[in-house]
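A reminder before we start the practical. When you read a complex entry, don't treat the lines as separate problems. The point of joint prediction is that each chain is placed relative to the others, so the output describes one connected object in space. Small molecules and nucleic acid strands, if listed, are placed in the same frame. In the example below there are two entries. Take a minute to note the order of the lines before looking further.
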Amino acid sequence: MKGSAVLNRRSIRKYSSEPLDEEMLVEILRAGMAAPSAHNQRPWHFVVIDDRSKLDAIMVVHPHSQMLREAPMAILVCGVPSKSKVPEYLPQDCSAAVMSMLIRITELGLGGVWLGVHPNPDRENGIRSVVSLPDGVVPFAIISVGHPDAEKGPSGRYDEDRVHRTNW
Amino acid sequence: MKGSAVLNRRSIRKYSSEPLDEEMLVEILRAGMAAPSAHNQRPWHFVVIDDRSKLDAIMVVHPHSQMLREAPMAILVCGVPSKSKVPEYLPQDCSAAVMSMLIRITELGLGGVWLGVHPNPDRENGIRSVVSLPDGVVPFAIISVGHPDAEKGPSGRYDEDRVHRTNW
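Here is the predicted structure of the whole assembly.
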């Protein structure tokens, strides 16, 4: 069972100075768009941020984003409720896209970490302003991504006490 | 870029009659528990359902679950808000676990599909009753899983119009 990107994925917050090439970026975005969504509504958009001043500005408005100081790139996943006939599943749809991208990042030998934005109003307002989001677009989460500067083994976090059979 | 479980994952609703062995089940659950969660709170539990009468009972209370007629197993992902100091991220945490499991299912050569439960009150109440969930536990989503009875190619759903650069 070695070689599973799902099991090997870890949150990577330290990156080398190597930039991300466009081909890899497209592979990551493709993974986001390969995620399932409720009723296949696909209510997401992606903002790619590799401008240093923008990355620095995110660090001002998001309290847990200091890894962006070294990251070559961030990808903001946005949800657009008006694009879905089942907008109550927007968090699920956007989370599925984020998770697909994080596992694809692992498959590509890169490292990334998930920064929560929605539903924290301060973070949402701050990010909205940094990347000029129009009304009706929800800044859902940020992925910080780069070439990893350190190796982490699998977490191996299996806990039998969390598994129930047939009934709770 | 062949061989990516992330890109090859599809929603699989048709299964052969072959049951799922315990080793594969543990691999799938391990993937769920390898998912990241906000502040590493890991506020999820899993109910494994392979009892035919329970699977049939889910079909009565969930309107889009007819694939369970042939599925050998369903895994209910539950969220426990009281286990997290940031319960507002429960949908993200549970969705990350679901998505990790779905991609692991693909890695293992199995097939699965995500059935939304939360935040639909009728589905939540129905599922709660079928598997005797205690108060304070949220039935979040169901994964139907089995050996696939049909092959599906990658969806290839890439859409450049959803990608923005630096600003929206």
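Discuss with your neighbour: Chain B has a mean pLDDT of 96. What might explain this?
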